[in-house]
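step: validate -> pass
step: tokenize input -> pass
step: predict -> running
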Amino acid sequence: MKSLLGFFYFIFSLSVNESVCGFHVSGTSSLVRNNPSLNSKASINEFDSSQRDEVTSLIMSLSEEKNDEVRRNNLSSLLKERLNQENSIEAARFAVLWDTTIIEIGSKVQEEARKKAEESVTTECEEENINSDPEVTSNLDSTRIKSAEELKLWAMIDMMIQSKHIIKNAMDGKL
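step: predict -> pass
step: emit ->
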């Protein structure tokens, strides 16, 4: 379980540290072409609570979809619709709000999953007395069913990577 959690942490860390919505990627982006003021990342405080709540709700509802393909298709449709708005300023603002919010939610989900995993591993090791046998521990990782927290974390990582890709393509005018 620790190796799986480590993998998720590594992937999530890469996603969080990669700033695609910083609007520094391309000065000729379709989202920022006529909006030089959007060349730096907007603060989450620039959005009202109803906007933040809407995006949070969208992210949470999408992350609850168990089927990866369905979730990916829904996310792609949603982002493409929102990023292809006539008003490029609103599209760019939505991209910033989405990126900021998914990172915040993803960090919370990651922390919750980490705490649960640590508790679970400690409990399993104490109950099964397997602390000293790495072969048994690795076999447990490969045969056990993933917890709800791990599935939620995977969904968030998957959504974050897909979101950054779609937003970058929109910024480069490739949508």
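step: describe -> The helical segments are 2-17, 49-63, 68-83, 88-128, 134-143, 148-171.
step: cleanup -> pass
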